[in-house]
């Protein structure tokens, strides 16, 4: 395996994707044709615990979910920065360690800021 | 890559795929039996001895049920949702080292589908794609409960992903590699990484519960508030794929935890035991794989035990646990790991 190019080692992943895709497609087609089909207007309504459907479900929702998503993007990028550092941690030595500590300190300041501003407060 | 190794890898893909479906199917049976034991019931007992044919009966039932497409839903996305969720659930198993080397006819075959050097990153990438499945499915249903369930599920999963990523960084600092196989090989001296990284393991374990939407983090399908959560509108095997993929995720995350923190396919005194029993290298590999699956089953039982013991969190509790407790704790863990490794002189001085 060592002498082969890197690209080859991704081939089994493609094979797995093809197997899984085949399974999913077969399942979807099979369940479409195997089950009974008795459509009716009321039955195909969205489920609302038995009462009549009121309006569209795609109404505005709490901004908090959006805020969490934005914060996730911010923090996840910071986490991704730390991966190459962690892999090379032993060779980077004390200097690398202190550099990362200052980066982490900035990250914690950011975290304290968003907590203080109440971005993660749910009523 | 020689042709016989390529063929072996393709065969292994098929085997692992079937095994993960089988384990997921029997995990549903196991869950029901386990719940029954905890609640002093019998559980499934009619289909076959001890109800062992129950998963097959359930599968057939799912296929024969009527397929519903709600009239307000977005048809294409409605079908894409569960398909994507199932597809991503099956893809992670490619980087997990299921065992050591098998030598057949002079050729050495590796019991890992592929050993890419960014295994952990690949794993995170594919796991995060699973969120799209839930989000698309919940949005396409055009049902208020589904949308709320999908929102809850996705914001919970992304919140815990940060703490999960950070808990792994402390481990990567010690291993110096992102390849799961090398991490497992480093643990073959008998000491697992859970001994060095107890806090990291705890954070990873909690995040794994949240990522797989298992109780006590199953707010996305909280039946008292949201009917069925993001899969309220689903029926037939489309619902089946959602439920099934969750069990596959549980199986895979158990496998990942065992590989990262519990020595993977290694077991204590393996070389001594192999010598004492006069096992060949192939024999040892097979026993190691069985031990690996034993450890995974142990973790799956732990997942079930927690589900039937702890009550569900409230949503604000869930969010503050992820952001205000686990994230700072994971940073502290990195800090401690760095300091201790420096104090022990394990890092170069430049």
Keywords:
heterodimer; A: 123 residues; mainly alpha; Methane Monooxygenase Hydroxylase, Chain G, domain 1; 3 helices; 0% strand; B: 350 residues; two-stranded antiparallel ribbon; 13 helices
The general outline of chain B is globular
Q: Assembly type of the shown chains?
A: heterodimer
Strand order of the largest sheet of chain B: 1-2
The number of helical elements of chain B comes to: 13
At CATH level 3, the topology of chain A is Methane Monooxygenase Hydroxylase, Chain G, domain 1
Structural class of chain A: mainly alpha
How far is the first residue's CA from the last residue's CA of chain B? 40 Å
Shape of chain A: flat
Q: What is the domain tally of chain A?
A: 1
What share of the residues of chain A lie within helices? 55-70%
Question: Which CATH architecture of chain A is right?
Answer: Up-down Bundle
Overall number of strands of chain B:
2
- Count of β-strands of chain A: 0
Which pair has the most extensive contact? A-B, 75 and 91 residues
Could you describe the largest sheet of chain A, including whether it forms a barrel?
none
How much helical structure, as a percent, in the residues of chain B? 55-70%
- Into which percentage range does the β-strand content of chain B fall? under 5%
Give the H and E element order of chain B: HHHEEHHHHHHHHHH
Mean pLDDT, all residues of chain B: 85
Class by SSE composition of chain B? mainly alpha
Rg measurement of chain B, Å? 21 Å
Describe the overall structure.
The complex is a heterodimer of chains A (123) and B (350). Chain A has 123 residues and is an all-alpha fold. Chain A has a single domain (2-117), classed as Up-down Bundle (Methane Monooxygenase Hydroxylase, Chain G, domain 1), CATH 1.20.58. Chain A contains 3 helices and no strands. Chain A has helices spanning 11-34, 63-87, 89-116. In chain A, helix 2 (63-87) runs antiparallel to helix 3 (89-116). The longest helix of chain A is centred in the last third of the chain and has 28 residues, at 89-116. In chain A, 15% of the residues are buried. Chain B is mostly helical and 350 residues long. Chain B has one domain. Chain B contains 13 helices and 2 strands, in the order αααββαααααααααα. Chain B has helices at 3-38, 54-64, 75-91, 119-140, 144-175, 180-186, 193-196, 198-211, 223-226, 236-261, 270-277, 281-307, 315-343; strands spanning 97-104, 107-112. Chain B has a two-stranded antiparallel ribbon with strand order 1-2. In chain B, helix 5 (144-175) packs parallel to helix 13. Chain B is globular, with a radius of gyration of 21 Å. Chains A and B meet through helix 1, helix 2 and helix 3 of A and helix 1, helix 2, helix 3, helix 4 and helix 5 of B.
């Amino acid at each position: 395996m060592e002498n082969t190019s890197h690209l080859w080692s991704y081939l089994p992943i493609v094979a797995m994707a093809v197997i899984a895709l085949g399974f999913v497609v077969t399942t979807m087609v099979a369940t479409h044709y195997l089950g009974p089909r008795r459509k009716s207007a009321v039955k195909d309504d969205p489920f609302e615990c038995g009462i009549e459907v009121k309006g569209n479900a795609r109404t505005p929702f709490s901004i908090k979910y959006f805020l969490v998503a934005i914060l996730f993007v911010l923090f996840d990028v910071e986490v991704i920065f730390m991966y190459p550092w962690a892999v090379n941690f032993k060779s980077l030595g004390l200097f690398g360690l202190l550099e990362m500590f200052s980066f982490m300190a900035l990250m914690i300041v950011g975290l304290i800021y968003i907590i203080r501003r109440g971005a993660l407060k749910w009523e | 890559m020689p042709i016989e190794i390529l063929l072996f890898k393709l065969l292994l893909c098929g085997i692992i795929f079937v095994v993960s479906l089988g384990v997921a199917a029997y995990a549903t049976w196991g869950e029901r039996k386990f719940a029954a034991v905890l609640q002093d019931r019998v559980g499934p007992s009619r289909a076959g001895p001890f109800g062992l044919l129950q998963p097959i009966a359930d599968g057939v039932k799912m296929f024969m049920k009527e397929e519903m497409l709600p009239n307000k839903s977005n048809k294409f996305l409605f079908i894409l949702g569960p398909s994507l969720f199932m597809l991503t659930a099956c893809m992670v198993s490619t980087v997990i080292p299921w065992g050591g080397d098998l030598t057949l006819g002079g050729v050495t075959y590796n019991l890992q589908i592929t050993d890419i050097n960014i295994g952990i990153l690949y794993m995170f990438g594919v796991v995060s794609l699973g969120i799209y499945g839930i989000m698309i499915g919940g949005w396409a249903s055009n049902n208020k409960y589904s949308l709320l369930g999908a929102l809850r599920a996705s914001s919970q999963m992304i919140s815990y992903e940060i703490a999960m990523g950070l808990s792994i960084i402390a481990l990567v600092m010690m291993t110096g590699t992102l390849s799961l196989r090398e991490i497992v090989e480093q643990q073959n001296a008998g000491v697992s990484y859970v001994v060095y990284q107890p806090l990291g393991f705890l954070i990873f374990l909690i995040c794994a519960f949240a990522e797989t939407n298992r109780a006590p983090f199953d707010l996305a399908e909280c039946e008292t508030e949201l009917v069925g959560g993001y899969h309220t509108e689903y029926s037939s095997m489309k619902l089946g794929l959602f439920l099934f993929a969750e069990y596959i995720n549980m199986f895979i995350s158990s496998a990942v935890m065992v590989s990262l923190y519990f020595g993977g396919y290694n077991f204590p005194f393996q070389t001594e035991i192999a010598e004492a029993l006069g096992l060949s290298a192939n024999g040892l590999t097979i026993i190691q794989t069985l031990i690996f699956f034993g450890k995974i089953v142990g973790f799956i039982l732990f997942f079930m035990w927690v589900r039937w013991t702890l009550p569900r969190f409230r949503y604000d509790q869930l969010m503050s646990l992820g952001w205000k407790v686990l994230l700072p704790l994971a940073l502290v863990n990195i800090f401690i790991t760095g300091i201790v490794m420096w104090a022990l002189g394990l890092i170069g001085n430049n």
